[in-house]
Amino acid sequence: MPSAKFQEFMELAIGSSHLSAVAGVVADLDVSDVGGEPVISLVHSALESLEEDRVLESKALSQSALDISWEKLNSGYWKDVPHTWRTLYSYSAVANSLAQVAEEDHRSALRTCDLGLLMGAPLRESYLPRLAACLANYLRETSPGPVPSPSSMPCNSVADFQCRGLPVKRVDCPSLRAFESSYMREQTPVIISGAIDHWPALTSRRWSIAYLKESAGNRTVPIEIGSRYTDESWSQKLMTISSFIDAISQGGGAVGKGDADDSASILYLAQHQLFDQLPELRADICIPDYCCLSDEEDSDPIVNAWIGPCGTVSPLHHDPYHNVFAQVVGTKLIRLYSPAYSDMLYPHDSVMLNNTSQVDCEHPDLQRFPKFAEAPFWECVVGPGDLLYIPPKFWHYVRSLAVSFSVSFWWK
Questions:
Q1: How do strand 395-400 and strand 404-411 relate by DSSP bridges?
Q2: Any alpha helices (H) in 123-240, and if so which ranges?
Q3: How many whole angstroms separate alpha carbon 73 and alpha carbon 93?
Q4: What CA–CA distances, in Å, run from 84 to 94, 95, 114, 120?
Q5: What tens digit of pLDDT does each residue of 319-370 get?
Q6: pLDDT in tens, 1-55
Q7: Facing residues of 395 across strands?
Q8: Dist. CA 254–CA 258, nearest whole Å
Q9: CA separation, residue 343 to residues 132, 230, 369, 395 (Å)
Q10: Phi, psi values for residue 61, rounded to 5°
C-alpha cells in the first residue's frame, strides 16, 4: 500500500491519486515515427506495477525505458535527435521518479526529474516540473544544509578598473520609443540604469549564494568545467547547485584576473535556461519591457542564467539576437566590438565556432593576429541593477570580477 506521503506527492504533481491517469496519457502517444513502442510498453507496465505496489518491479521497468531513451538521445548530434525520443525520455523519467518516491529515495527522484527536464521534451501535463518542485520543497524542509559565508568568496577589486576602450554610454531607464530609436535602430550598445531595481532578486528576495543554495540547492544543473569553452580541456558535468556552490565558495576553480595560465578547473553555470527548470526562481525576476520590441509577435525572449565565481570568461563571440544582459550579483568586465570589424577579430574557421574569435581578448598574440590591435572597442563594468544592451552580431567578451549572477534576455 503506497504511503500517505506518496499519495500526497501524487495529488500535487499528477493531480490524481491514481497512476492510471498517467498510464492513459502514455498509452495514447503516437511513437511510430521512431519505433518507440517498446519504451511505451515498459513505461506503461512500470506505472501499472507501481499502482499495484510492486515498487522494485516498477523501478526496474522504468529504468530500462530510461536507458533505451538515453541511448537514443546520445546517438548523434543533439539537433538531429527526434523530438519523440525526448518525449519518451520525459515520460520514462516520470515513471522512474515516482518509483523512487515510493521507495522514499527523494534525492534520487529529484535528480531523475531534473534529468528529464534537462534532456527530455516539455510535457503538456507538466508532471516533471510539478513533481520536482514538490520534492525540492520536501527536501528543503526535512534536510536543510549549512549555507556558505559570503565572506569566503574571493573576488577582485573593481576600484582599479580603468577603461581601455570607448566608454559605453549610461542612461537612466529610457522610454521604449527612445530605446528603439537611439539604440536598437542605431545598433549601439548602452547601459541602462533603474530598469530592474524593482526585481525581487534585488530587493525582497535578494540573490546571494546563500539564497540560491537554500532555495534550490538540491537541483541538478549542467556545469561547465574549464576557463573557456574553446579550450581542449573544457568539459561539462551535472552537479547539484549545492555542490556547485560549495566548490566555488571554497575557492574551487580558477579565481584570477583573466591570466592565460588560469586553472582549467574553473566552474561555471553558463547559458542555462534555469528559470524553465526552476519556475520558483523565475518569480524573482521580470522580463524587461524592452524585450517587447521583438519582430516576432507573441514570442517570449530566451532567458539564460549565468552563475559563477570570480574569473569566469566567455571568449569573444557574437550571437544572432538582441541581448539585454542583466547583472544581479557581482560585477563583470565586458568588451564589445562592432560587426564591421569582424575581419580583424579572426573568427574560427569551423562551423561550430565561426561565431567565436581565435584571439585571447585580454592577452592577444599580435604576431598571429596583427589586425586585432587595430580594432576599436567599447569597454565597461556592469554591476547589480545594470542592464547592458548588446545589439545582434556585436562581438562581446565577458569576464567576472567577483562572484556573479547574471541573466540574459535574447530576442529577434
A1: unpaired
A2: 127-142, 176-179, 209-216
A3: 14
A4: 15, 17, 19, 9
A5: 999 999 999 999 999 999 999 999 999 999 988 899 999 999 999 999 999 9
A6: 567 778 888 888 887 767 888 888 898 999 999 999 999 999 999 999 999 999 9
A7: 337
A8: 9
A9: 47, 19, 10, 12
A10: -65, -45
394 CB contacts (<8 Å, ≥6 apart)?
187, 189, 318, 336, 337, 338, 339
Contact 341, 388 (CB under 8 A): no
Phi and psi, residue 221, nearest 5°: -135, 160
CA atoms of 192 and 184, how far apart (whole Å): 13
User: Regarding beta strands 190-193 and 170-172, do their DSSP bridges make them parallel or antiparallel, or are they unpaired?
Assistant: parallel
CB contact set of 168 (below 8 Å; sequence gap of 6+):
189, 190, 191, 334, 336, 378, 379, 380, 388
Label residues 176-209 b or e (16+ Cβ within 10 Å = b): eeebeeebbeeeebbbbeebbeebebbeeeebbb
By C-alpha distance, which of 406, 383, 93 is closest to 274? 406
Query: What's the sign of the alpha-carbon dihedral 10, 14, 15, 16?
Result: negative
CA separation for the pair 360, 30 (Å, rounded): 49
Let me know if 21 is exposed, middle or buried by CB neighbors in 10 A (0-12, 13-18, 19+). Answer: middle
Q: Which has the closest alpha carbon to 389: 158, 163, 182?
A: 182
Query: In the block, which residue shows the cell 565561426?
Result: 354
- Residue 196: DSSP 8-state: S
Q: Which residues contact 232 (CB under 8 A, 6 or more apart)?
A: none
Residue 63 parent element (H or E): helix 55-73
- Of the chain, the end-to-end C-alpha distance in Å amounts to 53
Angle (CA) 381-384-390 rounded to 5° is 55
pLDDT of residue 13: 81
196 pLDDT above the threshold of 80: yes
For the stretch 229-275, pLDDT in tens is: 887 778 899 999 999 999 988 765 544 444 444 445 789 999 999 99
Q: How far apart are the C-alpha atoms of 244 and 233, rounded to whole Å?
A: 19
User: Distance of alpha carbon 412 from its chain centroid, rounded?
Assistant: 20
The x, y and z cell numbers of residue 203, run together, are 530587493
Cβ atoms of 50 and 17 closer than 8 Å: no
pTM of the complete model: 0.88
